[in-house]
Amino acid sequence: MRVLFGAALLSAVATLTNAQDTTIETAQGAVTLAGQPEKVVVLDLGVLDIFNTLDIPVAGVAGGPKPDYLADYGNAPISQLGSFFEPDIEKINALSPDLVIVAGRSRAKLQEVARVAPAIDMTVESTDLVGSLERNMTELGKLFGKEDRAAEAMAALDARFAEMREKTAQEGTALVLITTGGRMSTHGAQGRFAVIFNEMGFAPAIENVKAGTHGQPISNEYILETNPDWLFVVDRDAAIGRDGQPARQMLDNPLVHKTTAWTEGQVVFLDPADWYLVGAAGPTALDRALTQISTALAD
Asked: Fe/B12 periplasmic-binding domain location, by residue (predicted)?
C-alpha cells in the first residue's frame, strides 16, 4: 500500500506540474496559458518554421503554398484549416485545439479565432526581425519545454549575423525590390525586408522609402537613378505560383544593365518562398537567406 500510495502521489504531482500556468510574451503582451498545449494549430509559416525546428507537433495549419522544408505540413494527418487571411473557424472549432497561434497575415483574425479556442499572436516586427524571432523562439521553447534547443538555434543565427555584418561593412548600398503582376516596388529600412539593412548591415540606397506592406512603386528609370551596388529581388508571383512576368525578365533591360549592381554581377534573386511566404521570419528561412546572400558576397 505504501508503494502504491507513493506512486499515486507522484502521479498527482506530475499532473499538477503539467497543469501549471505558463506566462509567455507575445506580440500583444504577456499571456498566461493553462499547462502545456498538446493540440496546436499554427496559422503562420514563420511560426510553423519554429515548430519544425524545435520538433513540436502540430495538429493543423493554414492551407496554401509552403517552402519545401515545410511541405509535409500540407499533408494528412495534419488538418488544413482555410487560409492565412481566412482561417476556417468551423474546422478549427471542430478540431478543439488547446492553442491556436496567429501571426502576420492571420493576426487580424485573432479575436475571431479566440472565440473558439485559446489563441495568441506571435507576429514579428519587420524592423526588428531578429529580436522578434528570438522572442518567439524563447517563449515557445519555454511553453513546450524546448528551451535548450531554441537557445542553441538562436545562438547559431546570432553568430551568422555577426559574420554577415563584417562582410557587408564595405559592400556599399543595396536596393530591395519585390515584383508582381509586371510591377515592382521597393522596401527600405522601415519596410518588410528591413532585416537586409538593420541586421545584415547593407546601407540603404535610398533613405526615405514609403513604409508599408506594399512598399513604394518604382520603375527601371528609378533603379538606374538610384544606382545601387547591390540589388535584392523577391518575385512574388513565383512565391505564390501565379503566372506573370518573371522578375529576371523584368530587370533584364538596358536601363538596369547600366547600374553598378548589374555590371558587377550583384543582382541577387532571393528565394521567393523564404522571403515572401515565410517572410524570413523563421529560423530555417532566415538561415537559408543568410546562406544565399553570404554566397553572393563570396562570388
From this structure: 39-299
Pick from 271, 272, 266: nearest CA to 168 = 266
Cα–Cα distance measured from residue 193 to residue 253, given in angstroms and rounded to the nearest whole number = 24
Low pLDDT (below 70) residues in the chain: 1-19, 212-213
What's phi and psi for 40, nearest 5 deg?
-120, 140
- How would you classify the pairing of strands 99-102 and 40-43? parallel
Does the domain spanning 21-145 belong to CATH 3.10.310.40?
no
- Rounded to 5 degrees, what are φ and ψ at 123? -60, 140
Domain with CATH 3.40.50.1980 in the chain: 21-145, 164-298
Q: Which residues, 6+ apart, have CB-to-CB distance to 156 below 8 Å?
A: 287
pTM over 0.85: yes
For residue 2, CA distances in Å to 7, 10, 14 come to 9, 12, 18
pLDDT of residue 2: 32
CA-to-CA distance for 153 and 155, rounded, in angstroms? Answer: 6
pLDDT of residue 19: 58
Phi, psi of 204 (to 5 degrees): -65, 135
Q: Are 96 and 39 in contact (CB under 8 A)?
A: yes
Nearest to 235 by CA among 244, 223, 226, 227: 244
CATH number, domain 164-298: 3.40.50.1980
